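Exercise: predict the fold of this chain.
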Amino acid sequence: MEVSHQKFSQFILYTLAYLVLLKTSGMGFGYPSAEYLLSRISFTPQKLMQMLALLLLALFFFINGWSSIRWFKINTPVYLLMLGILLSIANSAHALLAFRFLISMLAISLPLYVFYRFYGSYALYRVWLNFAIACVVLNFLYVLAFPHYGIMSANHAGAWRGLFIHKNMAGSFFALTSTLLYFEAFYYQRSKINLYTPLFLLSCLFVVLAHSTTAIFILLGCIGSFHVMIIVTRLSTARAKLWLLIAYASLLTVGYTLLTTYLEDILAFFGKDPSLTGRTGLWDVLVQLSFEKPLLGYGLGIFHRPQIMLQFASEFGWEAKSTHSSYVDIILGVGYPTAILFLVLLVRSAIGALLTTTPSSQHASFSAMLVGVVVGALLFSAASSGAMLSTGIVWLLLFSCLLICSSIKAMNKASVSQASPLVSSRIITNE
């Protein structure tokens, strides 16, 4: 009876994990290829999947009772983050909408957190890796079999998007998950002849053929940061690692400053719109709005809703359906203090995994890969919504990386780094 109970619990959690990834990806069959027709898409399947996820989560807690609750371990900064979110909702003029957004976020985030607490970092990483592999293969086959659906038309003619709703989301997703395949192909599995190399190259092909400049920058940022972080982990002292991280962050800051200074010239050279298709004017208006409620914001997720964005369309001159920036999302949603707290927790978790990894530790390249993905998610955040405290798949990837980074930091402190990082990470669930 006990064995069947464990197997049933395992079935629920694995089903939940893959279900929320599929739901948040938004992938589906037969989406119209022209962007102006995408508003006709019905998201009923995604809503049904969210309801199913909530039911499965409730079933899991019911059959496991108190033993499933005691695994939740939350530290003080996270409690403060949760308090900031709840205060933003309570203070919102659209409190019901903000609360519904919170429930939607928890419906996709809790399954992965519970999965991580029960099965550890290795299992969570494998879920992501398996999902990435399936997405590469299925999306490529979909483009070959149904090019009239898998390749966009009209103003984005020729751009690959596969089963995804839009080519930008497809490109960004493959840019981020390519880092996992790159790690498997050239680091973790490098002593073997493996299939990860062609999968990585196929994923890169998708990034290029998605015709998304953002996705290309994300891919370069992920792979480049991965190699920089490899160097960081090989340094012998935490001080040396910290100085190299500061130097790298300074270099990125200088590069970003130069990029923004000459942005119009650079984009004009590549034939792109210098206004980033109206985003710069949009951000000017939204940043001014954030100053009107700087402490608690307007309520979590409020500006994810097109009907809210349309109220300000006359001010920025076009009918944007999102803020097109995850940083603006979180500031408008929960205010500056809570947004800063979230970013500090994010950076601390990522850097903590690097600083506590010894040069001889087998965790080194794995930690570097995770931080590379985090950097890519931060790049995605600069021009797209949905990467922070949200209901999108990029948020789930970022959230998972933070959980695994925290486990690596804890394991190194517990001096269990002699085992494989992708196996010994299970130990963290038994703290």
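Check your answer against the key: The first helix runs from residue 2 to 25.
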